[in-house]
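Progress against Task 2.4 (sequence-to-structure conversion) is shown through the following example record, which the project officer requested during the mid-term review.
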Amino acid sequence: MIKIALCDDNEIERGILKNVIEGLLKEIGQEVQAFEFSSGEKLLRNYSKGDYDVIFLDIQMKQLDGIETGKAIRAKDAQVEIVYATSSEEYMKEGYDIHALAYLLKPYRLEKVRETLVYYLNKYDVKKENDNAKMLEVTIQQKKIFIRQRDIYCLESMGRVVSIYCKNDVFKVYARLGELEKKLDSEMFLRCNQSYIVNILWVKEIVDYDFQMPDDKLVPIRKRDKKEIVQKFYNKRNETDTHMEKVF
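Structure tokens generated for the chain above:
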């Protein structure tokens, strides 16, 4: 069950988006629970972390606008994904600090809403939530730990210690990076440096010679092989997106 909040002071546009989202998710048999809010104030009232998985937030609202609403949400909930909606591209830059998942231009285009949902489902593997998700088995202090691979956004090696960065935690494992690489899903992970492996699903953007990850962590790309590594990244991302699009 995906819990979605739609916040827009235009009732008609809010209703259109709700119908589109519910229709697209219904096609793949994914249950969705949608909550509508006509203002940022109403959305924030009694808001608690974990209330929603995705929030579709209009930027141009009469009272508390989407940017201020987004900042207030981030202060309460760092994990929820925010998708901004706006009638003008000029407002997109204002939402940068909120780390939005995507931006949608009004009037809504079906294919753009579809792309956003595909990216979200792909990123969190929501479609297979009840299946046996791929896990990474590691040993920490003589105890076996299983980490869901989709939750890992990068691995960093320092000597014989590998730090596994996840969306909610960091695990330090006594192992060689190459050993762990063999256990990882090759469609999801990319070796981008002697000391780093990155999960392509969590890459926000490429900045110079770095992959920018959640919390603005920068993962270095091997300089002499940058062109090849970046091409591999886009190939993997495109293959994964194409696989997910077949579901719709």
